[in-house]
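Chain and conformation:
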Amino acid sequence: MKSKTGAAFGFTVLLGALTFLAHAVAQDREANQLKLQHYTLTNLGTLGGSLSEGVGINNYGAVSGNSLLTGDSVHRGFFWKEGVMTDLGTLGGPNSVAPEAWAPNERDQVAGFSDTAELDPNQENFCSLLGFFPSPYICRGFVWRRGVLTPMPTLGGNNSAATSINNRGQLTGITETTVMDPSCFAPQLFDFVAVIWEPESGKLQELAPLSGDNETFASGINDNGQAVGTSATCAAGPIEAVLWEEGKPTNLGSLGGTSFNIAFGINNRGQIVGQSDLPGDASHHAVLWQKGEITDLGTIHNLPNSLASSINNKGQIVGFSQINDFFSTIAWIWQDGAMTDLNTLIPAGSPWFLVEALGINDRGQITGIMFNTITGEVPGFVLTPVENATEHAPLAPGVARPVPVLSDNVRQLLQRKRGLFSRGSIR
């Protein structure tokens, strides 16, 4: 039998070991955070219009995004690489979009959707529902590579949209079916389902809904073919976040709310990010799903809403928080259990304010949308982490940049952007 003295000594050793381990973990966390305390900022510019956004960035630093054209009446998806922004073009109509929070793959392929030249006989405004101006045209998904658009098929209906692409060339998306559903909200008439599309083989795999649902939407896919998105009905009701493996859905769970539980992205480790409503459905928070558990990532500066847009293979997460007026919006990064305002990690004297962080690659580069507090410009950005660069010194730790008062013009542009490109996930 061990003596009390021996037991006490053993406990003291164990306590000392745990204290040392905790101290080491804290030092490790601090060191990792310091690596991201400095960023250089690149202005992506626009395709001639007053607004653009970077939505995803691959590991080579290439960006996909969206921009208004000159005159601000037409918008296009773009591919940006080494300082050159290329218009993705369209499938015959005026507008195209690269979906938010998904990068071009490492083959420089981009997923998207576009107006076609053909008027929709059912007047569903399908592209408009996904983020366009009101559009009378049939909407079709596409994959873009080196200036060539390949249209996405449907499951019999008129409309489709591609929403993400992995490094194997697999795309997620949605397609209309031929099933007319009287429970849908006007102008939508037909059911639509999530799919995985493989352009090289032509395969179109339908992703099943959860029991009792008839509508699915896929918004992300990793290199293992795991897809994420939502399951719901065409009528008003619960929206559940879903993981699909081999076409079979798993309900990811929520923070207690039912209205807007959405999975946006998944990395190759199977970690999933998105948003979940809190009990009562008055607000929602950014969340991380992993190993069957959901983690509330919280929000910053007491803003009631947040969402997580993207996660890289190192587990770093980016997103944004805002209040219900759409305008007090702040980009952040989450790592090592902490959410940090990205505006505190860029040069302290910068006139730029980072509004939304939408994509992050494995190098830690981040893309999103910002505005200039002096000129009112609203372009996309790329942040690149740098070390030991005193000329890029950020604010002191814990010091927040005040959220600037937006001009009417900037407010109009950001409100327009909500209708143009976003999924409408912030109320």
Summary: Residues 1-34, 419-427 have pLDDT under 50 and may be disordered. The chain is about 10% helix and 45% strand.
